[in-house]
Each structure stands twice: as structure tokens, then as C-alpha cells.
Amino acid sequence: MVNYKEEIAKIIAGQVSELSEEDALELVEIPQDPAMGDYAFPCFRLAKLLRKAPQSIAADIAQAIADRPLFEKVEQVNAYVNMFLSKEMYTRSTLEEAMDGENFGKTNVGDGKLVIVEYSSPNIAKPFHIGHIRSTVIGNSINLIYRALGYKVRRLNHVGDYGTQFGKMIVAYRHWGNEQDVKDNPITTLLGYYTKFHVEAEKHPELDDEARKAFADLEKGQEEEVKLWQWFREESMKEFNRVYKMLDIEFDEVDGESFYSDKMQRFIDELKEKGLLEESRGAQIVDLEAYGMPPALITKSDGSTLYCTRDIATAVYRKETYDFYKNIYVVASQQNLYFQQWMKVVELLGYDWVKDCIHVPFGMVSLEDGTMSTRAGRVVFLEDVLNKAVEKTREIIAEKNPDADESFVDDVAHQVGIGAVIFQELSNNKIKDYVFKWDKVLNFDGETGPYVQYTHARCASVLRKAGEETAAKARNLDEVDFSYLNSDSAYALTRLLYALPQTVVEAGEKFEPSIITRHIVNIAQAYNRFYHDEHILSENEEERVAKVALTIAAKNGIRNGLALLGMKAPERM
């Protein structure tokens, strides 16, 4: 796609010999108000360089470049050069890109470099609740965005399957467990045991000592503890995989903290050799006071390891195994300090590549009556949220399409219901905390996933009504008369389609899927304005072909944008 900012920078630098192309490019702006041009060039910084008033400089530049074929109009407004591109040229170049349905929005800035994205990462033997959706869908979208940018992505699910909580679960099962109950309803049953453990431990503190011993035995490979732990893990993964299937999310690798249990001693030894390890109340720590952080705990007083030890081993293993370009962790903002601590320890060990380990934080989810807590059993199961969203969607579709085939209703209900939940999660900046409310999640009105999906279906409907012959002509841009796409609504839509590839780049640079979410809402709104303002299926064949071409481009942009969020784009709704 033509980079108009670069083209304009070259033209302006050619007129102002004291200005480099790089400096000119830095100054070129896109005005908020389209009435001020497609691009603008402020001349304030040139006043000192050229010893002239910025208004006078702007007037000189505007006059010098006005006759360039790139521009329809150039005007000086105060100290700005406002440039209006040739609409027909701009529209044609944009549609040339947008007609490549499979690749529109993609670039190759990654050049095949390997990026690891770790996301979802629930704890086994605990419910897959609504709080887990944030890491799961944000991480999946970052994976999809980086693939679209030309990176090779390895998707990792680093499940929490180690630590003292599993000692608690083992003790709880021994005291109150029933094998058949776990088999019949694993996660709910295990959650009940876990909740009961914390209630009973308040009255009987010796249970905590029992749990610590059980985990220490697990680390030592004691047969009974390992057998129970493996069973809890298998049953948990069955539950998790059912939810991943609903979300259409896959991983290249599912490992757990336990995978690194035999890889940690190396780093404990390295810390000792470098004089970084200190004893504190029987525990082993790395003092980080010089870096403004609390100490990093490496081993507990009983010799068992902690999250920090395992994450150090995990990072080094990934670098040595995959030689990653970036190693991205999609983990809640509550862990900001923790990530700073273990990354600093890795740096102190001499692994300078730790700068390529990136923590992508996100805000927390709470319930209307307070924070979720698996200890207290106060959670909303993610599977319940997804099923309710699908069921509500099924009711709406069945009501609007009473004669529709049942399989069609089920298919669209799944795409739209699941999509509504995903879109709601990705529609706001990821760092914001939010309160989970059923009525908000299941509200399909306004700037929502169903609205964008419906706009895609509207585009598909227009193409069906236009017929394949018209659509074929529209895809061959030599058959298109772009003068029919000069209206304000058509041009506003074209501008948004042109911006899609750069929007994907920006979303990748900022690890922020909501940038794409907002952009495809804007494309959907712009197409709907175009749809209402214009008679697309005109009796005039040339006009019809041109407007169908823009419809194809809008459909491709919306579909590919939804795909980057992990959503489907229904052809009918």
C-alpha cells in the first residue's frame, strides 16, 4: 500500500533543502477534522531554520506543491499546509490492497522472527472463571496480530500446576474427598474441597503444616502425592479444553510449572556462585533493595521452590530452546512488581536477552459484590458465561428468522454469542479494571461485536443481491469508475480501510487489541453510513460496480479485523 506520509515528506523535503526527509516525515500529521485535509504539515519548527514567519513558509510550500498529481487541493491555513489527496487515486490504491481478501491488513514487519506468547495459564483443580477470559482472549488476539505482522508465533499455555496450593488440594481430598464425585464433576468438586480447606484451616492451623508437607513430598516425587496431582491435572485439562474449544483457541504447547521442576537447581547454583543468594529466616533470597524492590524469594525455609525460581528456569529454557525474538507474558497487572523482580534476577545472572521478555499487564475483573475468590468459592464460571451468551443469541436469531434451519441458527448463535463476549473483553483498553455484570456482557446493542458482525453480514447480503457478475467486475478494478466513490461517506470509509494495516502495526507495538476493536467499529459505522447515504445497487451499471467494489473492500476489512480478535464473521444473521 502506498505510504502517503512518506510520499508527502519526500515532496516537502524536495522544496525545503534545509529539511531532511526523516525530519519532514516526523512533522507530517493526519488532521482530526477531514475538512482540514487528508494530511497537514505544520511550519512552526521551520521558522528559526528559514528565518521567516511560519505562515509565510506555509504559503510558499503550498504554492510550490499544489500542482502535484498526488493532490486534489493544497491550501495554506495559518502556519499549516493542508493537503487533500486525489480521491480517485487514493481510493484505487486502497481498494487494490483491500481486494486481497486473505491478506488485507497484513504486513511483513516481523520477517519470520519467532515470538512466544504465553497466555491463559489457569491453575489446575480450580474453576476456569470469568477472570481467566482476560489473559485468554487478550493473549490469543496478540498471537493473531503478531502472525498478521509476519512473525512466527509459538502459543504457550503455562498452566499453574505446582505450588503449596496443590499440597492443600491433596490434604483436602484425603480428609473429605470422594473419587466418584471428582470423576462426575471435577472442577466444582475440587473447588468445594479447596474452599473447605481454608474454612477448616482457620480452626485447625495444623492443616497448613500438613499441606506444606504434602507439597514437599510432591516435589520429592512421592508416589501417592504424584498420582493424586496427575489425576487433578488430567481432570482439569478436560474442563479447560472444553472452554478453549468454545472460544476456538489452540496452543502449540501446554506445559506447567511442574515441567521445570528439574531445571531449577542450575539457577540456584548460579546465584550462589555469583554471590547473589542470601539467607533470610531460613529462606534463600536475592536482595533487590539497590533496585528499589523487595527481595526475590528463591527457596522457602523447607527447601521447596517458589514461582520466582520456576519463572527464571522457564525464561532461560525458552531462550535456549527457541531463541525467541520476544517472549511475551500476558499476565494481570497485580503481578507487575513480581515480573520486575524475577527479570532483574535474570539480568543479574548475566542473561542480557531478558530485555526481550515482555510483561503485558491487564486490569482485574471483580463481581458486583466484591472481588472474586476461589478460596471463598465466589466465582462466575466462564463456561456459564459463554453458554448464556450463545443461548440469548439463539433466542434473538430464532425470533427474527422463524423459518431458519435449526443448524443455521445454532451456528450463527455460537459465532455471535461467543463473539459478543470476546468483543466486550477487547473493546476497552486492557489495563482498565472492570466489574463483571451479566446485563453488560449480554447487551448486544451499541458498539458491540454483534453490531460489527451484522455489518459484515449486511455487506454479504449486498453482494448476494448484486449477483456474481457484478461482483466479478467489481473485483477487477480496471472495470471500476472511481468517480462514483467521491462522496463524503464513501471517502470516509476508504480512509478507514486505508488505515487498517497501520492500525494492526500499532496494536502489535502496544500489545493492545482494543485499537483494532475500535477501528473495526469505525469501519462498520462508516459502511452503514455509506449504505444509508448511497443507493448501492443503482440501475447505472458503472455506479453499481463501483459501490459494490467498496462493499467488497469493507467486508474484507471487517472480516479480517474480527479474525484478529479471534472472532468469526457470519455471512448471514
Automatic annotation (TrEMBL):
<dbReference type="Pfam" id="PF00750">
    <property type="entry name" value="tRNA-synt_1d"/>
</dbReference>
<dbReference type="InterPro" id="IPR035684">
    <property type="entry name" value="ArgRS_core"/>
</dbReference>
<dbReference type="GO" id="GO:0006420">
    <property type="term" value="P:arginyl-tRNA aminoacylation"/>
</dbReference>
<dbReference type="Pfam" id="PF03485">
    <property type="entry name" value="Arg_tRNA_synt_N"/>
</dbReference>
<dbReference type="InterPro" id="IPR001278">
    <property type="entry name" value="Arg-tRNA-ligase"/>
</dbReference>
<feature type="domain" description="Arginyl tRNA synthetase N-terminal">
    <location>
        <begin position="6"/>
        <end position="85"/>
    </location>
</feature>
<dbReference type="InterPro" id="IPR001412">
    <property type="entry name" value="aa-tRNA-synth_I_CS"/>
</dbReference>
<dbReference type="GO" id="GO:0005524">
    <property type="term" value="F:ATP binding"/>
</dbReference>
<keyword id="KW-0547">Nucleotide-binding</keyword>
<dbReference type="InterPro" id="IPR036695">
    <property type="entry name" value="Arg-tRNA-synth_N_sf"/>
</dbReference>
<dbReference type="InterPro" id="IPR008909">
    <property type="entry name" value="DALR_anticod-bd"/>
</dbReference>
<protein>
    <recommendedName>
        <fullName>Arginine--tRNA ligase</fullName>
        <ecNumber>6.1.1.19</ecNumber>
    </recommendedName>
</protein>
<comment type="subunit">
    <text>Monomer.</text>
</comment>
<dbReference type="GO" id="GO:0005737">
    <property type="term" value="C:cytoplasm"/>
</dbReference>
<keyword id="KW-0648">Protein biosynthesis</keyword>
<feature type="domain" description="DALR anticodon binding">
    <location>
        <begin position="452"/>
        <end position="573"/>
    </location>
</feature>
<dbReference type="GO" id="GO:0004814">
    <property type="term" value="F:arginine-tRNA ligase activity"/>
</dbReference>
<keyword id="KW-0067">ATP-binding</keyword>
<dbReference type="InterPro" id="IPR009080">
    <property type="entry name" value="tRNAsynth_Ia_anticodon-bd"/>
</dbReference>
<keyword id="KW-0436">Ligase</keyword>
<keyword id="KW-0030">Aminoacyl-tRNA synthetase</keyword>
<dbReference type="InterPro" id="IPR005148">
    <property type="entry name" value="Arg-tRNA-synth_N"/>
</dbReference>
<dbReference type="InterPro" id="IPR014729">
    <property type="entry name" value="Rossmann-like_a/b/a_fold"/>
</dbReference>
<dbReference type="Pfam" id="PF05746">
    <property type="entry name" value="DALR_1"/>
</dbReference>
<keyword id="KW-0963">Cytoplasm</keyword>
<feature type="short sequence motif" description="'HIGH' region">
    <location>
        <begin position="122"/>
        <end position="132"/>
    </location>
</feature>
<comment type="similarity">
    <text>Belongs to the class-I aminoacyl-tRNA synthetase family.</text>
</comment>
